[in-house]
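Try this one yourself first.
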């Protein structure tokens, strides 16, 4: 993906923000403050960070400098309105991070690279596409993609190499599915959904019962629905419901290697970190946050704006805005107190032994 250089003036105009400094400076890439190179655009998370970028005048007063050292005349910074400095090239924004992200997209326009052909749209010769499938305008189907009967795909969607779309799946517009993602029968995918490599949507839920010591499979007859703007990480699995729908609601983002069990309803704008798991039939409200390797037990109802810190397990229904830690999950302040006590157990046992020994000697 090649960068598209823009002058500071042009970039600010496209971002619909003000700038100060050298409007003719060519911005070639975005970066962090710790990796600034000539033509770079970084953003400040706090106004004090501007002191980390030396000015030419400041460098001339140093005892020695290196030839490759970058100064403020060669780079630009996205800053909040209260930051003003005549020796820096600045893009001024009420939300520097959001503006930096927007600049990233402008400087790095998405250009899907599908090996084997250079068309802006079309089906690769090695793809297998059912005659009954309906593809919208500008859909790109990469090498070795397989599309089953009855599939419908919206315009501008990109299916990279090895993607498999099974029967009667409905996919919206402007989606991107990376290599080897799989969407199983009758799943429903909204607009602007991203599936990273190896994601599996609509696999069977873990439904079994035992008779005479033998595990017997319970048919999983439902579907999975991903609403608009959902992103599913690499090797993440979302199970179809037993009867009705497993649903991931609008704007939710699932990290790599996440497991969502059958019948789950995950609310809008969830953020689920890697190696986390949500048990069957969980109903979670909007803006759920799950730290790495955290979990939710099956059949739990989770409120809105709930956070499970890393490795926490939510085992009971919650209220809104709870922050939980540990196993079982409990208010994080209480969990931290317990962890502090656990760390003192050796000391406390030693004190008890000494008291017992003193009592026995009296």
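Now uncover the answer:
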């Amino acid at each position: 993906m090649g960068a598209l250089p823009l002058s500071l003036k042009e970039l600010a105009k496209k971002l619909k923000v003000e700038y100060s400094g050298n409007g003719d400076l060519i911005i070639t890439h975005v970066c962090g403050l710790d990796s600034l190179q000539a033509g770079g655009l970084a953003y400040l998370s706090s106004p004090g960070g501007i002191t980390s970028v030396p000015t030419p005048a400041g460098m001339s007063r140093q005892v020695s400098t290196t030839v490759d050292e970058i100064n403020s005349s060669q780079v630009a910074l996205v800053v909040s309105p209260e930051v003003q400095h005549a020796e820096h090239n600045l893009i001024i924004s009420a939300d520097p991070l959001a503006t930096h992200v927007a600049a990233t997209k402008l400087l790095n326009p998405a250009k899907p690279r599908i090996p084997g052909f250079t068309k802006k749209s079309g089906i690769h010769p090695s793809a297998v596409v059912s005659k009954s499938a309906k593809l919208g305008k500008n859909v790109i189907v990469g090498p070795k993609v397989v599309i089953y009967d009855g599939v419908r795909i919206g315009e501008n969607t990109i299916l990279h190499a090895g993607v498999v779309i099974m029967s009667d799946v409905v996919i919206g517009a402007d989606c991107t599915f990376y290599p080897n993602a799989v969407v199983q029968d009758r799943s429903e995918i909204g607009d602007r959904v991203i599936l990273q490599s190896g994601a599996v949507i609509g696999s069977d839920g873990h439904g079994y019962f035992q008779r005479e010591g033998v595990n017997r499979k319970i048919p999983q007859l439902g579907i999975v629905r991903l609403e608009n703007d959902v992103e599913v990480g690499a090797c993440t699995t979302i199970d179809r419901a037993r009867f009705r729908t497993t649903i991931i609601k609008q704007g939710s983002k699932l990290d790599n290697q996440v497991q969502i069990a059958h019948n789950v309803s995950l609310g809008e704008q969830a953020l689920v970190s890697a190696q986390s798991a949500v048990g069957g039939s969980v109903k979670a409200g909007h803006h759920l946050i799950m730290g790495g390797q955290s979990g939710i037990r099956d059949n739990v109802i989770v409120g809105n704006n709930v956070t499970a810190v890393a490795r926490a397990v939510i085992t009971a229904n919650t209220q809104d805005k709870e922050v939980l830690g540990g196993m079982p999950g409990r208010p994080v302040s209480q969990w931290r107190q317990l962890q502090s006590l656990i760390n003192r157990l050796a000391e406390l046992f030693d004190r008890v032994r000494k008291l017992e020994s003193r009592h026995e000697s009296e």
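Discussion: The radius of gyration is 27 Å. Confidence is low (pLDDT under 50) at residues 63-67.
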